[in-house]
Amino acid sequence: MLTVGQAFPEFSAKACVGNTQNDLITVDNTTDGDKWKVFFFYPKDFTFVCPTEIAEFGRRYQEFLDRDCVVFGGSTDNEFSHLAWRNSHEDLNALPYPLIAAQKLSQELGILEPSEGVCLRATFIVDPHGVIQWAEANALSVGRNVNEVLRVLDAIQSDELCPCNWNKGEEFIHV
């Protein structure tokens, strides 16, 4: 798995950004320009834990935008599967960010679970220069915590020494 300090791979992938065939687009490293980016990957469309995470990133999307950050979700499912799932699941119907068909990208990131061949629940925070500043992965059965993604994004963007359990607005470590 790629990690902190490494360049996020250059990629071009199909993605679903809405609810019609016209909402199937191509995204790449230049999509949304020089913003911070959170890429989160999940195992499969039409499952049980995955929509809880995908919907929560959607509900919290404005908090990412407030931090000059955009969000991309993705799995090894294709863009047509993403479209069908968005249209059939009430919590995913109006997602404000793209779901990437990440078959090739997931291999380049090293996040494929070996026995299933699906994405681990991996999350990457990527700075505006395309460098990974945070990488983590959960077991397939364990959903991630969006609060923690936001907390870490705040800490990284502060460019300060942040102690354990630090939250935005709290004291930094001064040496």
- Succession of helices and strands: EEEHHEHEHEEH
- What is the CATH topology? Glutaredoxin
- Count the DSSP helices: 5
Strand fraction band? 15-25%
What is the β-strand count? 7
Structural class: alpha/beta
Distance between the termini: 33 Å
Strand order within the widest beta sheet: 2-1-5-4-3-6-7
Q: What count of structural domains?
A: 1
Q: What would you call the shape?
A: globular
**Residue share in helices?**
25-40%
- If you compute it from the alpha carbons, what radius of gyration comes out, rounded to the nearest whole angstrom? 16 Å
- What would CATH call the class? Alpha Beta
Mean pLDDT: 97
Low-confidence segments, ≥5 residues, pLDDT <50? Answer: none
Task: Give the biggest beta sheet.
Answer: 7 strands, mixed
CATH architecture: 3-Layer(aba) Sandwich
CATH homologous superfamily - what is it?
Glutaredoxin
Task: Outline the structure in words.
- With 175 residues, the protein is an alpha/beta fold.
- The protein has one domain (12-158): Glutaredoxin.
- The protein is globular, with a radius of gyration of 16 Å.
- The chain has five helices and seven strands.
- The model has no long low-confidence stretch (mean pLDDT 97).
- The chain has helices at 50-59, 61-65, 79-88, 103-109, 146-158; strands at residues 12-16, 24-28, 36-41, 69-75, 99-101, 121-126, 132-138.
